[in-house]
Design goal:
Structural class of chain A: alpha/beta
Order of helices and strands of chain A: EHEEEHEEHEHEHHEHH
CATH class of the largest domain in chain A: Alpha Beta
Radius of gyration of chain A: 19 Å
Number of helices of chain A: 8
CATH topology of the largest domain in chain A: Rossmann fold
CATH superfamily of the largest domain in chain A: P-loop containing nucleotide triphosphate hydrolases
Number of strands of chain A: 9
Oligomer: homodimer
Largest sheet of chain A: 5 strands, parallel
């Protein structure tokens, strides 16, 4: 059986990342890694689904135990990805998606060069603005802040492996699966098959 | 509009290359390059479909005119690929498939590093033998010669970009399309989009 692939998945807000992931996860060979955090659960958040909620002491103990693949501090809370959330699944043939923002992704480039880096982009910044306005849930100031954050994130696109434009959800999801399948067909991914065929020839 | 992609497509005999190509060519964004030859047409071969049949003098004139991307001699006949069979189609967004054997493919690596190299493999050499026997059209000696030729070709697999195992036709064709789509989503293929989005941000 083939090992799973670690996939770093980034998208600015308004790019439909959530709906894309929901579609992708209908395929049982994919799972999203669950992050661990020291912050308090928000209303509706479930331990083990949205995050693993642990105490600051427990977080420190796990750092000391070298249990994290990566971790960082935001607003006085710690967030991290446990190695156990990733490697055991990859070994059993499951593709593990790490949904992280661009800075974290760049860190991952160094820690896990075996990962696949996929960026979900809007068709254009104008379209992104239109989508964020359409939601109608944020003030114009907040929307402009989000646009600015998105533009900063878009500048990291050249550092990823693949860019998928989420114009129509169905196409974007099918593009994602094409990328994953294609990566399984590269000569390096097929090294074992090649060796086997030639050996038994 | 995006340019088409040049695809070098190789497969040993018995790998179902013909049926795969027939399926792929149902998609109008793909075409097979038609080779030019000085040999006589065989029964049922149509000029401009199976080959362009031209005289030895005409072939020499075209070599002198630098009209060939590549050409070679086999059994006192010349075979070649006209540049006009490739570049004008790529420019108009058509993906051009060059169906060539491994030696020719290795030459193409040098001439056209922009091409995508796809190898169609049998699930195993045993399965290849079974398929060739099943046809029942060749003598055991001919079959063994073909197996030997196939084994030699399989040794070139590591020099290709992608290996598609043709076990079930439908899966192999869908794998081929996944590879082509995925290549359109790489950061290098998306360079124009990235520039555009960032510029207009």
């Amino acid at each position: 059986m083939n090992k799973g692939r670690l996939i770093v998945f980034s998208a600015p807000s308004g790019c439909g990342k959530g709906t894309m992931l929901a579609e992708i996860l209908k395929d049982n060979s994919f799972r999203c890694s669950v992050s661990t955090t020291t912050r308090e659960p928000r209303k509706g958040e479930i331990d083990g689904v949205h995050y693993y909620f642990i105490s600051k002491e427990e977080f420190q103990r796990r750092i000391a135990n070298d249990e994290f693949m990566e971790y960082a501090e935001y607003c006085q809370n710690s967030y991290g990805t446990l190695k156990s959330e990733v490697d055991q699944y990859l070994e059993s043939g499951i593709n593990v998606i790490l949904e992280i923002e661009v800075q974290g992704a760049m860190k991952m480039r160094e820690i896990r060069p075996d990962a696949l880096f996929v960026f979900i982009a809007p068709p254009s910044v104008d379209e992104l603005r239109r989508r964020l306005n359409k939601r109608g849930t944020e003030t114009p100031e907040i929307i402009e802040q989000r646009i600015e954050a998105a533009v900063n994130e878009l500048k990291f696109m050249p550092k990823y492996d693949y860019i998928i434009v989420n114009d129509a959800l169905e196409d974007a999801v099918s593009d994602f699966f094409a990328v994953i399948r294609s990566e399984q067909l590269t000569v390096s991914a097929q090294a074992e098959f090649i060796e086997e065929v030639i050996k038994n020839a």
